[in-house]
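thought: fold this chain, then report.
action: predict
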Amino acid sequence: MANGECAAVWCRTGRWCTAQAAGILQILFVGQAGSAVVAGGLLSQLWVLVPMPGIWGVAGGWWWVPATVAYPFLVPLLVTYGLVSLVPLEILRRYRKKWKGITQGLNHGFWSS
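observation:
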């Protein structure tokens, strides 16, 4: 990820990076993390009506239970969604590491000549 913006930022600040990519990745992370928190909050507070177990269920009894209890597969789905929301942050971390190496090389080349 390099363009004229990277060179302009390096000339002005001494750091090689692109604010466009960093901004987009940060916005993606915030959006995904926010939706993961909202989904987790909603599903943890959602109650569903299900038949009672045992003899009471046979007799026609119903009760309210949390959705994560009635549908346990929701828990790993929520965890996976939360972990996926961290992907843009990891991509940004890797690019920052790459940008740091480029910055050090450019600064060394600039100041040593």
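thought: worth noting. The first helix runs from residue 4 to 13.
final: tokens above.
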